[in-house]
Amino acid sequence: MANIDVQTLTEEIKKRSQFVDSIVSEASKVIVGQKILIERLLMALLCDGHVLLEGLPGLAKTLTIKTLADIIHCDFKRLQFTPDLLPSDLVGTMIFNQKTGDFTPKKGPIFTNLVLADEINRAPAKVQSALLEAMGERQVTIGETTYKLEDPFIVLATQNPIEQEGTYPLPEAQLDRFLFKVKVGYPTQLEEKSILNRMSGVEAPRAAKICHPTTILEARQICSQIYMDEKLKDYILGIVFATRFPEKADLPELKAQIQVGASPRATLSLARASRANAFIHHRGFVTPEDIKAVAYDVLRHRILVSFEAEADGIDSEQLIKKILERVEVP
Q1: What's the chain look like in SS3?
Q2: How far apart (Å, rounded) are the C-alpha atoms in residues 153 and 50?
Q3: Which residues, given as ranges, of the chain have pLDDT below 50?
Q4: For residue 205, what are the contacts with CB-CB under 8 A and spacing of at least 6?
C-alpha cells in the first residue's frame, strides 16, 4: 500500500474515531479508573467479539457494562447464571396458545444488544452450549425456527476467580469463542477515595446517551481496513506458532509447560484486536505495540497450561511474557 494511502486512511480514522474519546470521557463520569476495561469493551464492539471478565465481586464490572450500554444507546440485559438455569431461560421457548391451537415463540433475554452473563461458570453445560450458538453463529433456534440476533450483539461474561465450589469450568471450545479475557483488578487508594466521594450522594451519577449503534457498525467497517504490514502478520503468526511449537521458536522449556497452544481463531483475534487498538488510538496503521498491547487479553484463555507447569505455579501469563520476549519484533 502506498504511503499516501496510509496517510489518507489515518486522517479519515482521526475523524471517524473521535467518538471513542467521547465515550471514554462520558464513562469516566460514572466509572472511576477501569480505563483498560472500557477500552477492551469498545474494542470488542469494533471487532464484533465477546469478552470474558475475571475479577472479584464489587469491582464495578456490571456497572461498567451497563454504563457503556447507556452511552451507546443499546439494549442491555443481565442474566444471573445459576446451577438450576435452563437453556429455555436464556433463548426462550415455544408457548402453546389454547385459542388458536398453535405454538408461538416466546423469545428469551438473549434477544438484546449487550448481554451480561453474570457468573457464567455457575450454569451447567447445557446452558453454556445454548450460549455457544448465539455467540458463534449470531442466531438462536427455538423449536424448529432459527432467529437472527440483533446487531451489535456481544456477550460479556463474568466469572469469579476464587469460588470454585459449585462451578462448571468453561470448556476450551467455549473459551476460544471469547475475543478477550480481561482481568479486573482493585482500584488504587486514590481511585477508591474518588469512588467513596462520588457514590456518597443521594443519587448515583448517570451517563448520557451520546452515541448511536450505527456509529459502532460504521466504525467496524473502517476498522477492518486499517493497514497491517506483511511483517506484522508474520509477527502475529510467530507469536501464535510459538504457543504450539515452542521448540521451533527457541523456547524448548515451554514444550512441557504448554498442553494446548492457541488456535487459528487466536491468530484472527490478534489481527482484529490490534486493528481495533490502532483505531481507538486514532491511527490508520498497526504497529508492533498494538499487537503486544492486546496479546495478553487475546491469548491468556487460549493457552492450556500443563499439570506440571500448574504444579510449579506457572500460569499462561508468564508463558505469554516469555514468548513476547523471544519472538523477534519486526
Answers
A1: CCHHHHHHHHHHHHHHCHHHHHHHHHHCCCCCCCHHHHHHHHHHHHHCCEEEEECCCCCCHHHHHHHHHHHCCCCEEEEECCCCCCHHHHHEEEEEECCCCEEEEEECCCCCCEEEEECHHHCCHHHHHHHHHHHHHCEEEECCEEEECCCCCEEEEEECCCCCCCCCCCCHHHHCCEEEEEECCCCCHHHHHHHHHHCCCCCCCCCCCCCCHHHHHHHHHHHCCCECCHHHHHHHHHHHHHHHCHHHHCCHHHCCCEEECCCHHHHHHHHHHHHHHHHHCCCCECCHHHHHHHHHHHHCCCCEECHHHHHCCCCHHHHHHHHHHHCCCC
A2: 9
A3: 1-2, 4
A4: 29, 30, 198
For residue range 105-125, list pLDDT tens digits in order: 888 889 988 999 888 888 888
Residues 292 and 243 sit within 8 Å (Cβ to Cβ): no
